[in-house]
Amino acid sequence: MDPRLIYSVGTMAGIGTLFGAGLAYASRKFAVHVDPKIEHIIEVLPGTNCGSCGEAGCSGFAEAVVAGRAPVSGCVPGGSEVAEQVAAIMGVECGAGVEPPLAVVRCQGGRAEAKERFIYRGIQDCKAAQFVSAGSKACVYGCLGLASCERACPCGAITMGDNGLAIVSEEACTGCGLCVAACPRGIIELIPRTQRFYLGCISQGKAKEVKAACTVGCIACTLCAGKKAPPGGGIVMEGNLPKIDYDTIQEWPEANEVCPTKAFVFRNGARPPEAEDTD
Amino acid sequence: MWRRGFPGGTHPHYHKDLSSGKAIEELAAPEEAVIPLHQHTGAPSEPIVKVGDRVRVGTKIGEAAGAISVPTHSSIAGEVKKIEPRPHPLGANILSVVIANDGSDEEEEKAVLKPAAEQTREEMIGAIKEAGIVGLGGAAFPTFFKLSPPKDYPVDTVILNGAECEPYLTADHRLMLEHAEEIVQGGKIIMKVLDARQGFIAIEENKPDAIALMEKLVAGGNGFRVAEMPERYPQGAEKQLIKALLRREVPCGGLPFHVGTLVQNVGTALAIYEAVTEGRPLTRRVATVTGSAVAEPKNLMVRIGTPVAQLIEACGGYRGEVGKLIVGGPMMGLAQFTDEVPVIKGTSGILVLTEEEAVVPDPEPCIRCARCVDTCPMRLVPCTIQDYVEYGLLDEATDWGLMDCIECGCCAFVCPARRRLVGFFKYGKALVMERRKKSAAS
């Protein structure tokens, strides 16, 4: 055998052994102890880094839980399921778990229902559009349809429908609330998952203004909060808009029989098919 | 001529011949005037009239609220019908006083003033504030505030800005031809208020008749000189004018008084003259109504609060298909969605473009040609700042000088990829201001 081959293989093996020994020593000497619990907690968290727990992403939350700075049920999108798993890792009781809320788009005024005042050709972002003459939609409360919420959603739960309105997927939504902050008009609301219906309009305008701008807007007739209120109550007028008390009333199938503009939205699909908001 | 100029700039088609030869016409008072209480930079004025009150021409209807604010006056005589939010040329709905004209055109009694020569500095500033005067070039900054710079910054130079570099507009040009004497007198009042050493009347070379007339008027050596400026946009921008004329550079985030200079539009000088000598409040202004979709372009003296539709009607109405209605000029003006918006103090013109002219091509990717960099009169790098704003990196955008952008529109004008540079800068500036407000509040 060529001695040069032996020398080179031997040299490489020698260098390898030397570095290996050095690294083995260094990994012991300079080892940083990481609590394995942190790794375990990161594994059970949703991993979207939405930040709604108040920490810097999921790993930050895991560290905070282990350090005792955050409660085991602190992950909003994770809800009770994740809270239980985190509690199990930490070896504590998690108490009553909270179901994560659901984001809903409180505007039904799509292209067919709501009028436009002008054609907007500027920056394709809702907030930028809002700066130009307060938005192109005749209703100054309605969804501008430029998908700022879609871009803000870390779970891909929001898509833009053909009618120009945002659609939230109930399965994908984790209730983190990033879309709520992204909407310049405050149309998106987080509601409890137990809630079966909500009001699909946030217009504080008077009946005349609303009717001139949109066919499905709330015209503040006060029927749902007054004369034809649900038996158990739970709806009160706040300015020109009824407010549903989610603790009092979760279901009211007759809502749109009362509402002259059919401004209520039902989550269980008890609505006209062309106005389906969730799928 | 001041050939040295300022860095950057561009040469859009001026189209001034459409209206530059037309003498200013007085437009009849509107049947109903909608007078917004926020027509200036700063805090809006507070309404001091009620529905049903009778007002006369020049009656104060809004009181200044805050340090940077001016009062608002009625421009017609009649009854206050409503006080409610109405469409405003700057976008959104703004609280406005709606007045129905009774046809009498009765004038409010004017405050009795001493002759201008005997007034003290404070009296003159007071008269200017009471008259509700703001910069009439377009930015509408309260004039009294500009005339009271901090004591550490003595102002030695006054520049009357008659450059009118914005294409299409000819209102200042006509004012200089028809009210030259008053403008110079107004300029002298400004010099007296500031105790300034020298004065300039800056006019672009494309207005030789105005230059000749002004030169004749200042020939007596009364402190003013006429500066013939080269034709180049944005020659009339405050900072660029100072740079071109005096070689002084306004620092970042600074104002002209930081370099001992004050710039006032020639229309403002006229308003100052009227306020100080006659006690006349600012209730009217000259606006150019022009563009290829207007039947007969004109320069009109209009009452503040007149609906834009009435101005168009006075010019023979629209011609052909209207593509875009702009309040202001084509470079810096704002597109409107309705002609119901009123003329406000800062409305220097109404431009109506045909559908063909108003086509907005879709933006394409930046090709890194750096034409925007060459043209930027503020020496910024528009393409980079735009990227930062687009991706929400406001700190980086601010580091690269976003807040120094004067929104002149040169970069977007020369961009071969038709990118919406100025749109992003305006948006970015609004976001930064919003964030600063938030952090100041918390």
From TrEMBL, chain B:
Its EC number is 7.-.-.-. It is an enzyme of class 7 (translocase). One of its GO terms (cellular component) is plasma membrane. It is a peripheral membrane protein. Binds 2 [4Fe-4S] clusters per subunit. Residues 357-388 form the 4Fe-4S ferredoxin-type domain. Its main location: membrane. The keyword Repeat applies. [4Fe-4S] cluster 1 binds at C366, C369, C372, C415. Coiled coil: none annotated. It is found in: Cell membrane. [4Fe-4S] cluster 2 binds at C376, C405, C408, C411. Pfam families: Complex1_51K (PF01512), Fer4_10 (PF13237), RnfC_N (PF13375), SLBB (PF10531). GO terms for biological process: electron transport chain. Its cofactor is [4Fe-4S] cluster. InterPro entries: 4Fe4S_Fe-S-bd (IPR017896), 4Fe4S_Fe_S_CS (IPR017900), Ion_transpt_RnfC/RsxC (IPR010208), Nuo51_FMN-bd (IPR011538), Nuo51_FMN-bd_sf (IPR037225), RnfC_N (IPR026902), Soluble_ligand-bd (IPR019554). Keywords: 4Fe-4S, Cell membrane, Electron transport, Iron, Iron-sulfur, Membrane, Metal-binding, Repeat, Translocase, Transport. One of its GO terms (molecular function) is 4 iron, 4 sulfur cluster binding. Part of a membrane-bound complex that couples electron transfer with translocation of ions across the membrane. Belongs to the 4Fe4S bacterial-type ferredoxin family. RnfC subfamily. The complex is composed of six subunits: RnfA, RnfB, RnfC, RnfD, RnfE and RnfG. This is Ion-translocating oxidoreductase complex subunit C. It comes from candidate division TA06 bacterium DG_24. The gene is rnfC.
